[in-house]
């Protein structure tokens, strides 16, 4: 979901690796250990939670999290909680990284000191104020100066203990006076609208025919005065109201202008808790990759996109734009991710991968090393399998992975690591049964393998067989090196990275999955001496169970099916595919005539057949909505029920299911996937009501009939197939950014092409890192790339200059106190001065 700006879309995303915490403070009890988990928060809103690591002061999490960020934010925060079974979980400390500082830590493992959490460290939100200083003539004919302070509204205030009932105090303070006034309390909202005006007498009355605004004494006093706005949460607790943030403004700036209106970011108090040592609470290791893509309309990218999409047809393929990107990027993975998504979007992924795979096979001398390196081909196929094969993994592996994680059967077969009371033979049998079951579901899943993967495997098989005609097994190993080594085995080893489990498994389960993954990987490799593949003698002994021809035959039959030409027409899989599930809060739809329309927590489940909810996971569904009955899925305005992150599922006969997700990221995910699966429904709506129907009318358009057609156009949503479930312009923008980042290497590659064209002697060392089969063709492509990147760079620069001219500091989008915008202003001023 992009933040729309004039002529441009801004996409924000973050990829986080939560490593470990160390040196947490001891628990003040006899045990001293803690049961800790970590949360990821956008400002104060939790969007992810790790598993709980029990009885440790140095908990290792090892969890990855990625999300698209659907709104603006100021801080990316991480909280360490100590679980308490009997009371509310207590916060140990937090790490808060300002948005403008995220690039400092880009893709680097960094240890952050945990900070104390108190009211001042939790300040967030902004306030809209209008100040007016004016002369007032009294009844006696003399003049005094009064200040009118209008508190209009606030946005994004922090929520304290699950509630926010805010009010504001406005104080005029000086060296010898302090006068305070208070707004009304606004219940159950962190976006309160106050619109209250308070008047303060600033100077004492003076003669009306005096020319100056202030007496000499008054001028000095005004210069030392300030207006202070404090936001508080009205609490019912005996400890008093909770501080939410404050704003301090000196009155001397009003002497330049008698009226001033602006938005301001709230700040912590000056006497915030700074006395505590920052290293008392331990530290947290994080790796954060924050990306912000500024995407123009599609026609801006046409020249660069056309050069990229022709890559599969360029001879030789090493002279193509896509291959060149792989050559100049520091890591092949950087290039593979946007390239695969772009080619998938335009339906060109199979010819592109076939071309680069065929070139790599021609350069390979030993059939035993085919596709074993981290080449552009390998990384592109990996990325394609992740995108196209996610549902395939869910159908094939998720049921048995869930069972392994829940049952916790002992499967340790290393005699050295056996626990007291465990039997080695029993453990081997447990492990053998798991391996047998997983091997069976994999080798019988060929009919479910996605078509795009099968087409790629067919191409790999043919290239390998043609290159190594004397090796009859190479047609199998070329495919098994991907489907087993790079797809099934990693998914078993780290199921959380493939969305098979929500978190990294506990140590015992992780060990079981490691042993299974090793065995499955070896079974799929079809190597001649399999027992020799294991360094550990206990693994070689265990593998003797599987030294039967039936296992090799099953693997070959499976590989034949997923890589054969003219494969069966791929029809929809009849069994339901689970797409998403989880707890949310729903409002009763009024299906019962006298039923209460209240809010209840329910377990929601979405498959490619239906959308259901039940009381708890595994219960019988209370309501089932067939996918063909979903006519629209849209956001619901917060004012409808005073609840955030709500959306609506609109059904026939204007029946609407209102749902609240746990956070903004989850709400976006549900809306996207529900829209995607229902995109092809013939009766999809074109208009909808963005607010609810309450008290006899629609809150948005005030229409009284509940069957009134919608008043707002439906959003476009997502298409239903993988080729289009990708933003091609965004991927081209990312490729442009990579080319721009590695421009020195592109220019060096141009030099290498020139050198090779005119000089046929030994290759210079600085050019030896590039694969250049045809210098003239490569030079032509490089020229087109550099020209396209240069044009896009100029467009970005022009957009920044135009935006700088139009943006007002103190507006709702850029409140006063926004450090990132202040930095941006400084940079643009320097650029403007330099250009002049």
From TrEMBL:
<dbReference type="GO" id="GO:0035556">
    <property type="term" value="P:intracellular signal transduction"/>
</dbReference>
<keyword id="KW-0862">Zinc</keyword>
<dbReference type="Pfam" id="PF00616">
    <property type="entry name" value="RasGAP"/>
</dbReference>
<dbReference type="InterPro" id="IPR023152">
    <property type="entry name" value="RasGAP_CS"/>
</dbReference>
<dbReference type="Pfam" id="PF00779">
    <property type="entry name" value="BTK"/>
</dbReference>
<dbReference type="Pfam" id="PF00168">
    <property type="entry name" value="C2"/>
</dbReference>
<feature type="domain" description="PH">
    <location>
        <begin position="577"/>
        <end position="679"/>
    </location>
</feature>
<protein>
    <recommendedName>
        <fullName>Ras GTPase-activating protein 3</fullName>
    </recommendedName>
</protein>
<dbReference type="InterPro" id="IPR035892">
    <property type="entry name" value="C2_domain_sf"/>
</dbReference>
<dbReference type="GO" id="GO:0005096">
    <property type="term" value="F:GTPase activator activity"/>
</dbReference>
<dbReference type="InterPro" id="IPR039360">
    <property type="entry name" value="Ras_GTPase"/>
</dbReference>
<keyword id="KW-0479">Metal-binding</keyword>
<keyword id="KW-0677">Repeat</keyword>
<dbReference type="Pfam" id="PF00169">
    <property type="entry name" value="PH"/>
</dbReference>
<keyword id="KW-0597">Phosphoprotein</keyword>
<dbReference type="GO" id="GO:0046580">
    <property type="term" value="P:negative regulation of Ras protein signal transduction"/>
</dbReference>
<dbReference type="InterPro" id="IPR008936">
    <property type="entry name" value="Rho_GTPase_activation_prot"/>
</dbReference>
<dbReference type="InterPro" id="IPR001562">
    <property type="entry name" value="Znf_Btk_motif"/>
</dbReference>
<feature type="domain" description="Ras-GAP">
    <location>
        <begin position="331"/>
        <end position="525"/>
    </location>
</feature>
<dbReference type="GO" id="GO:0006950">
    <property type="term" value="P:response to stress"/>
</dbReference>
<dbReference type="InterPro" id="IPR000008">
    <property type="entry name" value="C2_dom"/>
</dbReference>
<keyword id="KW-0007">Acetylation</keyword>
<feature type="domain" description="C2">
    <location>
        <begin position="1"/>
        <end position="112"/>
    </location>
</feature>
<dbReference type="InterPro" id="IPR001849">
    <property type="entry name" value="PH_domain"/>
</dbReference>
<dbReference type="GO" id="GO:0008270">
    <property type="term" value="F:zinc ion binding"/>
</dbReference>
<keyword id="KW-0863">Zinc-finger</keyword>
<dbReference type="InterPro" id="IPR001936">
    <property type="entry name" value="RasGAP_dom"/>
</dbReference>
<feature type="domain" description="C2">
    <location>
        <begin position="123"/>
        <end position="264"/>
    </location>
</feature>
<keyword id="KW-0343">GTPase activation</keyword>
<dbReference type="InterPro" id="IPR011993">
    <property type="entry name" value="PH-like_dom_sf"/>
</dbReference>
<dbReference type="InterPro" id="IPR037774">
    <property type="entry name" value="RASA3_PH"/>
</dbReference>
């Amino acid at each position: 979901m992009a933040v729309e700006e004039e002529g441009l879309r801004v996409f924000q995303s973050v990829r986080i690796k939560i490593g470990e915490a160390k040196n947490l403070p001891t628990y003040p009890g006899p045990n001293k250990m803690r049961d800790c988990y970590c949360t990821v928060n956008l400002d104060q809103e939790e969007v992810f939670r790790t598993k709980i690591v029990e009885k440790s002061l140095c908990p290792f999490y090892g969890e990855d999290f990625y999300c698209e960020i659907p709104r603006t934010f100021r801080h990316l925060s991480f909280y360490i909680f100590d679980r308490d079974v009997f009371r509310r979980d207590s916060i140990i400390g937090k790490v808060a990284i300002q948005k403008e500082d995220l690039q400092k830590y880009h893709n680097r493992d960094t240890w952050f000191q945990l900070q104390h959490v108190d009211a001042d460290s939790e300040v967030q939100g902004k306030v809209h104020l209008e100040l007016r200083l004016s002369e007032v003539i009294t009844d006696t004919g003399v003049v005094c100066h009064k200040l009118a302070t209008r508190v209009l509204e606030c946005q994004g205030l922090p929520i304290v203990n699950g509630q926010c009932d805010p009010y504001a105090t406005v104080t005029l303070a000086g060296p010898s006076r302090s006068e305070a006034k208070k707004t009304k309390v606004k219940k159950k909202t962190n976006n309160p609208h106050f619109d209250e005006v308070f008047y303060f007498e600033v100077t004492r009355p003076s003669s009306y025919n005096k020319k100056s605004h202030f007496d000499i004494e008054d001028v000095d006093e005004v210069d030392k005065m300030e207006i202070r706005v404090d936001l508080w949460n009205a609490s019912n607790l005996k400890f008093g109201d909770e501080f939410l943030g404050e704003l301090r403004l000196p009155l001397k700036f009003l002497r330049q202008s008698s009226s001033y209106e602006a938005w301001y970011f709230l700040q912590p108090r000056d006497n915030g808790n700074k006395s505590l040592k920052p290293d008392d609470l331990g530290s947290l290791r994080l790796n954060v990759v924050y990306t912000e893509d500024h995407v123009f309309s599609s026609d801006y990218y046409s020249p660069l996109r056309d050069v990229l999409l022709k890559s599969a047809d360029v001879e030789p393929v090493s002279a193509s734009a896509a291959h060149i990107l792989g050559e100049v990027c520091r890591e092949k993975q950087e290039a593979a991710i946007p390239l695969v998504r772009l080619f998938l979007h335009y339906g060109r992924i199979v010819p592109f991968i076939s071309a680069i795979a065929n070139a790599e096979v021609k350069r390979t001398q030993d059939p035993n090393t085919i596709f074993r390196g981290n080449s552009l081909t390998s990384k592109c196929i990996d990325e394609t399998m992740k995108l196209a094969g996610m549902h395939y993994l869910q159908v094939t592996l998720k049921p048995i992975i869930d069972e392994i994680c829940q049952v916790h059967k002992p499967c340790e077969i290393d005699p050295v690591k056996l626990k007291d009371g465990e039997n080695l033979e029993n453990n081997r049998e447990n492990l053998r049964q798991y391996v047998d079951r997983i091997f069976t579901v994999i080798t019988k899943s060929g009919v479910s393998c996605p078509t795009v993967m099968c087409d790629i495997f067919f191409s790999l098989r043919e290239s390998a067989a043609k290159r190594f005609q004397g090796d009859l097994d190479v047609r199998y190993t070329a495919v098994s090196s991907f489907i087993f080594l790079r797809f099934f085995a990693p998914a078993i080893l780290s199921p959380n990275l493939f969305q098979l489990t929500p978190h990294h498994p506990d140590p015992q389960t992780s060990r079981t999955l490691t042993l299974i993954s090793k065995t499955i990987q070896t079974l799929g490799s079809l190597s001649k001496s399999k027992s020799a593949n294991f360094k550990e003698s206990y693994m070689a002994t265990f593998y003797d169970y599987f030294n039967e021809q039936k296992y090799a035959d099953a693997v070959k039959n499976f590989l034949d099916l997923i890589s054969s030409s003219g494969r069966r027409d791929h029809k929809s899989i009849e069994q339901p595919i689970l797409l998403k599930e989880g707890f949310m809060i729903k409002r009763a739809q009024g299906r019962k005539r006298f039923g209460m329309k209240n809010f209840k927590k329910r377990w929601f489940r979405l498959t490619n057949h239906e959308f259901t909810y039940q009381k708890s996971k595994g219960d019988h569904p209370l309501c089932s909505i067939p996918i063909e009955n979903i006519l629209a899925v849209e956001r619901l305005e917060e004012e409808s029920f005073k609840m955030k992150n709500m959306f609506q599922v609109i059904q026939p006969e204007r029946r609407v299911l209102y749902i609240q997700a746990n956070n903004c990221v989850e709400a976006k995910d549900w809306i996207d996937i529900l829209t995607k699966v229902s995109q092809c429904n013939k009766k999809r709506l074109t208009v909808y009501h963005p607010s609810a129907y309450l008290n006899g009318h629609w809150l948005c358009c005030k229409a009284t009939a509940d069957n009134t057609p919608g008043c707002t156009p439906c959003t476009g949503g997502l298409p239903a197939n993988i080729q289009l479930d990708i933003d091609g312009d965004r991927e081209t923008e990312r490729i442009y950014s990579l080319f721009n980042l590695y421009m020195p290497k592109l220019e060096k590659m141009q030099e290498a092409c020139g050198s090779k064209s005119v000089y046929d002697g030994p290759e210079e060392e600085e050019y030896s890192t590039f694969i250049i089969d045809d210098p003239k063709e490569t030079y032509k492509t490089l020229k087109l790339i550099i020209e396209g990147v240069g044009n896009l760079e100029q467009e970005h620069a022009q957009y920044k200059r135009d935006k700088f001219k139009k943006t007002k500091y103190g507006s709702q989008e850029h409140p006063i106190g926004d450090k990132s915008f202040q930095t941006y202003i400084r940079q643009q001023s320097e650029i403007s001065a330099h250009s002049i």
